[in-house]
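INTERNAL TRANSFER SHEET
From: sequence group
To: structure group
Subject: histidine kinase

Please process the attached sequence and return the structure record in the designated field. Keep the field labels unchanged so the import script can parse them.
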Amino acid sequence: MNVLSSVYLQYEQDVVSARSRGRQLAELLGLSTQDQTRVATAVSELARNALMYAGGGQVDYGVDAGDGVNVGDQRLMVRVSDQGAGIAGLDEILAGQYVSHTGMGAGLRGTRRLMDHFHVVTGPSGTQISVAKSLPPGVTLSPHEIGRFQAALDGAGPVTPVQELQRQNQELLRALSDLARREEELASLNRELGDTNRGVVALYSELEDTASLLREASREKSMFLSYVSHEFRTPLHSMLGLSRMLLSHDDGDLSGEQDEQLRLLRSSAEELLGMVNDLLDLTKAEMGGRELTLEPLDLSQVLGTLRALFQPLVTPYGPQLIVEEPATLTVLYTDAGKLHQILRNFISNALKFTRSGEVRVSTRRLEDDRWIEFSVQDSGSGIAPEDQARLFQDFSQVGVPALRTSKGSGLGLSLASRMATLLGGRVGMESVLNHGSRFWAILPLHSGTECPAIATPSAATPPLSSPGLGDPR
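Return from structure group:
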């Protein structure tokens, strides 16, 4: 440190002089008004401590020019030294854990916050405290400038306590003015925040109203679809019953043209009934599909019901339905309606979109008999990889339109996926072009268990084979 001036501490007046000298040097070095006040306050506190607790001392002022190039190394330096008994419990004082009725410790901690650099060396032979404040950019501490600063300090006259008090009052007024300005800015900011909060509250209220309207509209839509779908089913069943009776020739023979027209009518009615059933299932899932009715189910009975349900749809000219009996006695604790809905969608899709070969339904136990996999494998032509990702989306139909033997709403697989999720499981598929497809559902034996990430297909699954004519979903 290049020492520019020194003040010896013997009397109270010397503390005033030390404070004034620190502020003068800070002003000469181009520090801001606030930094000048910080330096003067720090020097005053350290000088008063040296006089009060050590009986006197010395304050040295100087500058650290660093390498003369790096501005960040240029600092105003102040060193306060005494020959007292040292500072006991320095670490506790600086940590704020020391309490003294004389106030010792608060000054040191405050000084450290005011300055950019703070260092203490203390012992039985005395104490030396060094503090520093970085200079603003653009200040060049050449030897000529340092000499000019020293001459200015030497030429400055002594400062009386009254003058220093006046200066402190001016600093206090400036601080109060800055505080008032900041309070006004804070009040303005609080008003802006208040306006913003009111706007956010109003926006939330509007969003809640909109969400309520959307929920009501969704409920009305679901109710409408449910009523319409339900009402459509009665005349469709009547059309199917009448066409079946006429095609049985119980009331007399029909011409070839009449027979063909009735078969077309029956086919169209079946397709429309399938779409109506899908829409009804969708509305049920939206309105109350998250409620589960759990009950014990015998796996053999479940498969037997499915076999009886779909057997009338099997013809000598289409794919054969093979429902494999489970290898062991298995009882599931699940929702019967949702389980049947998943399997019905898989099997009906396989029968509708496979023209020859077979549709095989099988089951197997997984993961220490805590899970069961239902598999429906067909002998269709398979599904292209780019179409497989869309299979479980609402109203999604993929495949080659020219090969479709039936039409649908595109809701069956998406509903199956929703039902499996509600039961705590998941669905998936794998398909190889010209080698058929396999759709599977992994469900817990006791619903409510999280579904594991089980790799499929497994070695226990028959290979995809027996190419058919078409497999659009």
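Handover comment: The chain has eleven helices and twelve strands. Residues 5 and 61 are 5 Å apart (CA to CA).
Transfer complete.
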